[in-house]
Amino acid sequence: MGVLPWSCRCGLNPTPSKNRGAPARPPPPPPAARVRRSKYTGQSVRAMPMRVLTVGKKRSQGTQLLVEEYKEKLGHYCDVEDTLIKSNPKLTSDVKVQIEAEDASMMQQLKAEDFVVVLDENGKDVMSEQIADLIGDAGNTGSSRLTFCIGGPYGLGIQVRERADATIRLSSLVLNHQVALIVLMEQLYRAWTIIKGQKYHH
Amino acid sequence: MGVLPWSCRCGLNPTPSKNRGAPARPPPPPPAARVRRSKYTGQSVRAMPMRVLTVGKKRSQGTQLLVEEYKEKLGHYCDVEDTLIKSNPKLTSDVKVQIEAEDASMMQQLKAEDFVVVLDENGKDVMSEQIADLIGDAGNTGSSRLTFCIGGPYGLGIQVRERADATIRLSSLVLNHQVALIVLMEQLYRAWTIIKGQKYHH
């Protein structure tokens, strides 16, 4: 058996390192030194209306409650709209046809004036401060709405991917689309607290 | 203004690329080619009891509902325990003292026979399949329980970090600790479906 890909004190590691049990990266510097900022922190940023487009059936109650919670928090900063696009509108059993139908439905929702951010596992890996940058950048483009697109269980189609003004990923993990929505909503709220230089309220 | 760190069709990008609007990484190969597997997929893996230790006050209703939902799903594969450690037991206003007190409380919960996985923003970036590997690896160590530790709003203390048998991170984003718990629970369920070679139920 090879070396485990994480530090391990289980005895299976054939060359126990002095660092066993230590974090995989060096310990972080003290909080004061590692405060990261968005380039827009403390600057005036245009509070464009936001819309989150998701594909799916009815959400679980827990997901819906959390989405409402973050919508309310985000509402202090900008208008937020939450649009659920019907999953598999053609009621097909062919995954490819399903993806194409959902893709077409989502394209119908996108207008020329939208700044479109697509969430995709092949997108750019971002930190929270970069989501704040993205909101600030989008505000400088002349777009009139910032729209985030999350695909259904089988992901997004090619038209929406090509329409994207930015493509990001939330994690290296494959996230359930409802969980991805929760993570996104929390990050949008966090991004605004970063821009405004405010304390994050847990 | 420099080049935006994501592909952009807003006109701010001084050297518009042919790839504007395209994903930041090359498009993924077709699904058939990119099926990733855990090294344990289809193998028998010891279903060690799992415990998730979190620090905090009362969770939001949405979070609790989602935790219960995934606990039930995970319960088909292994025993799952969800332990909430009291936040700031010394009721101090000094963040350092708070972290140390929470660290000590969490250490009291950890036994010698625990395989301890710490979630930390400086940990190893993992894919879902590697969480499946981690569960399989832990089952081969002789440990009798697999324990995941999530810190409170100010993160984990040094004792727990040093006690870790593995340190992973769920995202490059800074996640609220309740959101981190939801992501973890979903990944543990996903990991077991990967190990068992089963369809993921949304």
Describe the structure.
With 202 residues, chain A is α/β, with parallel strands linked by helices. Chain A has one domain (50-196): Alpha/beta knot (3-Layer(aba) Sandwich), CATH 3.40.1280.10. Helices cover 33% and strands 18% of the residues of chain A. Chain A contains five helices and five strands. The first copy, chain A, has helices at residues 61-74, 95-109, 128-139, 158-163, 177-196; strands at 50-56, 80-86, 114-125, 145-150, 166-169. In chain A, strands 2-1-4-3-5 form a five-stranded parallel beta sheet, with helices on both faces. The longest helix of chain A has 20 residues, at 177-196. Chain A is globular and about 50 Å long. Chain A starts with 49 loop residues before the first strand and ends in a 6-residue tail after the last helix. At the A-B interface, α1, β3, α3, α4 and β5 of A face α1, β3, α3, α4 and β5 of B.
